[in-house]
């Protein structure tokens, strides 16, 4: 995986957290943020295409995921909230010599990505949100249909039994079988599987969801009340064969009140894990967007 990329562990958060990942120096920088339950290796087919397109590419494991640090939970779940994860990535990019950069995030990673654009507008040149809408919009739009389809959100965030249930049979819970290995690619599969078999990873991922339905929503609510908006060009991309559009309608219409800049809309011909299922289209769209089309 990742031919020509450097693999590293970089201390952030004043040295309290270490992020693991890979990067390749080249032209204008882009950082790629994975979702749940993946790690930075989900980008193994996209990242080299972006390098071939002339970009510097950074792929970290978010805190709590992959081989990055997994802090002990706090009662407010703040140590795993998007704001703290966003600060981690800003620190990381600074350590790697990138003061201004494009950020693209998928699934849970898109929450970290748009939080970076809101909290650090001076650092973000462009934002790509993949398969997601603002967290607060998801919370406020929750109905029986969404809660049934996306029941894991509420199980992860609210059940006192979630960690015990998942760790009792990780392979069964995450579908870690030969079909999944083939779909993900063997090295990506092994990397993610290793992390998921660590109970500390499972605990941290649950904390991510607990923060999502609590402190993350509060942060979004405060930004909306204060009139804070994303000020950089924004790409909104979603999977044709997933249910974002079916559940919520036009994602761009949902993002519009949050973005005070041009929005580009793209449908990716894939199911949910677009980086693994259609890396060619995703990489082409990210390159076109980063170059200002």
Quote the average pLDDT. Answer: 97
**Distance between the amino and carboxyl termini:** 28 Å
The parts where pLDDT drops under 50 for at least 5 residues are: none
Side-by-side strand order of the widest sheet: 1-2-4-3-5-6-7-8
The class by helix and strand makeup works out as alpha/beta
Helical fraction: 40-55%
Describe the structure.
The chain has 293 residues and is of the alpha/beta class. The protein has 15 helices and eight strands. It has helices spanning 46-52, 82-95, 108-119, 135-140, 144-149, 151-158, 162-168, 170-174, 178-184, 186-196, 199-226, 244-248, 251-255, 274-277, 279-290, and strands at residues 6-12, 17-24, 29-33, 56-60, 101-106, 124-130, 234-239, 263-268. An eight-stranded mixed sheet has the order 1-2-4-3-5-6-7-8. Strand 5 (101-106), helix 3 and strand 6 (124-130) form a beta-alpha-beta unit. Helix 1 (46-52) crosses helix 15. The longest helix has 28 residues, at 199-226. It is globular. The two termini are 28 Å apart. The model has no long low-confidence stretch (mean pLDDT 97).
Short descriptors:
293 residues; alpha/beta; eight-stranded mixed β-sheet; 15 helices
Short structural description:
With 293 residues, the chain is an alpha/beta fold. It has 15 helices and eight strands. Helices cover 47% and strands 17% of the residues.
């Amino acid at each position: 995986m990742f031919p020509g990329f450097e693999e590293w562990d970089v201390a952030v958060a004043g040295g309290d957290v270490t992020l693991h990942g890979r990067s390749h120096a080249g032209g204008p920088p882009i950082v790629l943020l994975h979702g749940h339950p993946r790690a930075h290796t989900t980008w193994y087919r996209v990242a080299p295409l972006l390098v071939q397109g002339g970009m510097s590419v950074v792929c970290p494991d978010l805190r709590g995921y992959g081989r990055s640090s997994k802090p002990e939970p706090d009662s407010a779940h703040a140590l795993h909230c998007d704001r703290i994860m966003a600060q981690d990535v800003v620190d990381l990019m600074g350590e790697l010599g990138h003061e201004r950069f494009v950020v693209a995030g998928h699934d849970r990673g898109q929450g970290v990505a748009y939080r970076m654009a809101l909290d650090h507008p001076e650092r973000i040149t462009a934002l790509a949100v993949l398969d997601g809408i603002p967290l607060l919009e998801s919370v406020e739009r929750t109905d029986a249909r969404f809660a049934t389809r996306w029941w894991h959100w509420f199980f992860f965030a609210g059940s006192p039994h979630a960690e015990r249930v998942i760790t009792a049979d990780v392979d069964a819970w995450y579908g870690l079988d030969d079909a999944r290995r083939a779909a993900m690619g063997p090295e990506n599969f092994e990397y993610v599987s290793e992390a998921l078999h660590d109970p500390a990873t499972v605990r941290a991922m649950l904390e991510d969801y607990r923060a999502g339905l609590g402190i993350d929503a509060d942060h979004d609510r405060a930004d909306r009340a204060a009139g804070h908006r994303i000020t950089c060009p924004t790409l909104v991309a979603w999977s044709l064969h997933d249910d974002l559009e079916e559940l919520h309608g036009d994602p761009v219409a949902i993002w519009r009140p949050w973005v005070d800049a041009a929005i580009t809309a793209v449908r990716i011909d894939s199911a949910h894990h677009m980086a693994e299922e259609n890396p060619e289209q995703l990489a082409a769209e990210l390159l076109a967007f980063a170059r200002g089309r």
